[in-house]
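Assess this one:
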Amino acid sequence: MSRLRIVDASNLEKVLFHIGFERARQKGSHTFYRHSDGRRTTIPHHGSRPLARPLLREILREIELTVNEYHEILDRI
């Protein structure tokens, strides 16, 4: 298993857009995203502060994306 690369919220948002998610709504600093197949997730936008590794892992689990797929998408964008 490869080590999970840490990103900030704006880079993770690019990953979500790349796989078909769209911004649903925002409440404060938290933005909610949804996919047409029903998957949903929330990302906290706290400036350029990186997301914590456990939170990033939980978001990947929610959007049903493996760590390797995540790294491949990051390399493309």
